[in-house]
């Protein structure tokens, strides 16, 4: 049976439901499970393939790459990016999360959904929600970053909203050169255009990336798209 969303998104929905209706989490989990066609959460969990999508993507990331991660809202791209950061930090490397959209509390909640605490990784996790975020700002902030550091940029379409920032194409070129020169993994979260129709195609592709300003998507080494628990990973080479 195909789930309506990745299992970690369903867990998050259960947590929200438990808070909203003031019920025990196990009851909320079972309600979500019944909605998905299972009589109990334990059965849903057993049926779910835990290797998708995170492990598929994580195993393919390489230092020096610029990666686009896109989906429509609510499909798990932010949660997946946090999961990638946690996996990176568990292996002793560092991660950085630059966002023009979320607060530290928002990101800490994603850690909790994934069974972790942000504070556990305080020595190797950089969170930055400055209004000045752009490619130049991030590159300066990571001047001393070690090779293999995972950098999350949330999100692509907001980077050139300020007139004082370089245009989006210039910034993506800068990220690409920076990732290669410093052997970092830079993941840019991206919006998908509302015209994407899941009834015609299960997962978005490059043609569905919302681009208010021109960007050569070939600058990305990989493009990854999520929709209803399915992950599509492709190279632009």
List the keywords.
237 residues, alpha/beta, Rossmann fold, 2 domains, seven-stranded mixed sheet, 8 helices, globular
Can you walk me through this structure?
The chain has a 7-stranded mixed sheet with strand order 3-2-4-5-1-6-7. β4, α8 and β5 (185-191) form a beta-alpha-beta unit. The chain starts with 6 loop residues before the first helix and ends with a strand. The protein has helices at residues 7-21, 25-35, 41-47, 54-58, 77-90, 104-113, 135-141, 168-182; strands at residues 66-71, 95-99, 125-128, 150-154, 185-191, 222-227, 230-235. The model has no long low-confidence stretch (mean pLDDT 91). The protein has 237 residues and is α/β, with parallel strands linked by helices. It has 2 domains: 7-47; 54-235, 3-Layer(aba) Sandwich (Rossmann fold). Helix content is 35%, strand content 16%. It has 8 helices and 7 strands; from the N terminus they run ααααβαβαβαβαβββ. α1 crosses α2 (25-35) and α2 crosses α3.
The gross shape turns out to be globular
Structural class given helices, strands, pairing? alpha/beta
Total discrete domains? 2
Q: So how many helices?
A: 8
Largest sheet: 7 strands, mixed
Q: How much strand?
A: 15-25%
Number of distinct beta strands? 7
Q: Helix amount, in percent?
A: 25-40%
What is the CATH topology assignment of the largest domain?
A: Rossmann fold
| Straight-line N-to-C gap | 34 Å
Order of helices and strands: HHHHEHEHEHEHEEE
Unreliable residue stretches: none
Radius of gyration: 18 Å
- In order across it, which strands form the biggest sheet? 3-2-4-5-1-6-7
Mean pLDDT: 91
The CATH architecture category of the largest domain equals 3-Layer(aba) Sandwich
């Amino acid at each position: 049976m195909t789930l309506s969303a990745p299992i970690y998104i369903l867990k998050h929905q259960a947590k929200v439901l438990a808070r909203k209706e003031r019920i025990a989490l196990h009851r909320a989990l079972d309600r979500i499970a019944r909605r998905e066609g299972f009589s109990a959460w334990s059965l849903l969990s057993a049926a779910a393939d835990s290797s998708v999508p995170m492990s598929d993507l994580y195993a393919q990331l390489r230092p020096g790459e610029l990666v686009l991660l896109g989906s429509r809202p609510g499909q798990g791209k932010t949660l997946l990016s946090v999961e990638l950061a946690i996996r990176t930090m568990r292996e002793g490397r560092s991660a950085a999360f630059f966002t023009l959209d979320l607060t530290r509390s928002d990101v800490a909640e994603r850690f909790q959904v994934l069974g972790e605490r942000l504070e556990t990784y305080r020595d190797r996790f950089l969170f930055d929600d400055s209004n000045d975020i752009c490619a130049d700002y991030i590159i300066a902030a990571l001047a001393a970053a070690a090779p293999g550091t995972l950098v999350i940029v949330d999100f692509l379409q907001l980077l050139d909203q300020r007139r004082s920032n370089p245009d989006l194409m210039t910034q993506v070129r800068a990220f690409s050169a920076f990732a290669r020169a410093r052997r970092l993994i830079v993941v840019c979260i991206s919006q998908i255009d509302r015209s994407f129709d899941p009834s015609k195609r299960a997962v978005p592709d490059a043609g569905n990336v919302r681009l208010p300003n021109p960007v050569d998507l070939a600058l990305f080494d990989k493009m990854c798209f999520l929709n209803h628990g399915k992950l599509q990973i492709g190279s632009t080479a």
